[in-house]
Design brief:
256 residues; nine-stranded mixed β-sheet; 7 helices; alpha/beta; binds manganese (II) ion
Length: 256
Amino acid sequence: MKILISNDDGYQAPGIVALYEALKDVAEVEVVAPEHNNSAKSNALTLHSPLYVHRAANGFRYVNGTPADCVHIALTGLLGYRPDLVVSGINNGANMGDDTIYSGTVGAAMEGYLFGIPAIAFSQTEKGWKHLDAAAARARELVEQMISHRTGDAQPWLLNVNIPCLPQAQLKSVKVCRLGRRHAAEPVITQTSPRGETMYWIGAAGPAMDESEGTDFHATAQGHVSVTPLKVDLSDHERLGYWAQSMAQRTGKGPS
Ligand code: MN
C-alpha cells in the first residue's frame, strides 16, 4: 500500500506533518507538497514557469508550485510508481460547501482522482490547528477503513472530509453528507499602498446559506466528521433537455 500525501498550506504546515505522522505506519508514505501556502488555488497548474523539486531534512519533497502541480508531477514521473491512494491535508480551516470549488486541498486530491486514483481531502473546520492530534487520529482511522475495504472499487472515488476542532473524546461519528452552500463572499477590502495606489484584498468566504440537515455544515456543527463523495462532471444533466429545446427555438431549427 502506497500513499501520496500533499496539501495546500505548504510542506511545513502542522497539518501535513500530523497527517504524515499518523499514516507512516499504515502504508508506505511519500510527501510532495507546495513550498509556500497555496490555499484557494483549486486545480491550477503552472504552465509558464519551471517547477523545481527539493527535499527537506525530514524527507518531504517540496515544489515551487500549486497543490495540483505537486500531485501531477508526482504521478507523471517523480515517484516512478503509482500510489494506491492520494491524501491531502490536513487543511488549516474548513472546506465545506462552495469552498470545495476554490480549495487547493481538494484540488490536490482531485488531481489524484483525475488520474484514476482514489483520493481523500482532509480539513479541520477552524483555523489554528486546535486538537490537530484528534483530527490526525480520525484521518488515520478513515484511511485504514478505506484500505481494508478496497474490494469493489472498480472506479476511483474522491472524498471530502471535514473534522470539527474538538478533543478526541468529543468528536462524533462519521456522517456522509452532501455539500451545503455559502452566501456570496464578503466585500473586497481596500487599502492604500505607501505609493498611494489602491490595493484590493479578497474578502472572507460568506457564511453558510444552506446548513440544513444532511449538509456538511450541519454535521460538523453537531460535532460529526462530515464525509462528502465528490464528482468532477460539471454538466448540468437535469437541464440538458431544456437547453436543447431552448437552443432549437432560438436558432429556429428543430431538433435534428
Ligand atoms: Mn489551506
